[in-house]
Design goal:
mainly alpha
Length: 113
């Protein structure tokens, strides 16, 4: 690699990083709902008999936004969906909006009261 190519490569890295980060304004819970219906709902129904019990049962494992993000990522990996971060974020946002009501403000305790 010549010096000019190396400089061009290094110079483009900040733009790649900027493009790879999804801004909070870009999160689309409606897309998350569609993804959930298409990829998650049938599995949850087979496990619990309906689509809501997994989220509303007394012993649910998701108790904060971080655990929700981790659970959606785990499902993505376990099912081999190959979702991008945007799809994971959209689905987590919809689940939070629909069931958990976690606050997205980083200064909060995550749970709306």
């Amino acid at each position: 690699m010549n010096k000019l190519s190396f400089i061009a490569l290094i110079g483009s890295l900040p733009f790649c990083l900027i493009l790879s980060v999804q801004a909070a304004d870009d999160i689309n819970p409606k897309n998350g709902q569609v993804l959930h219906q298409k990829h998650c709902q049938a599995c949850h129904i087979s496990m619990f008999g309906d689509e809501k019990t997994i989220y509303t049962r007394a012993d649910h494992k998701v108790t904060d936004k971080n655990k929700l993000d981790n659970q959606v990522q785990a499902c993505n990996q376990n099912l081999g969906l190959g979702w991008f971060d945007t799809e994971i974020n959209d689905t987590a946002a919809w689940l939070s909006q629909e069931y958990y009501h976690f606050d997205t403000n980083p200064d909060s305790d995550n749970l709306k009261h």
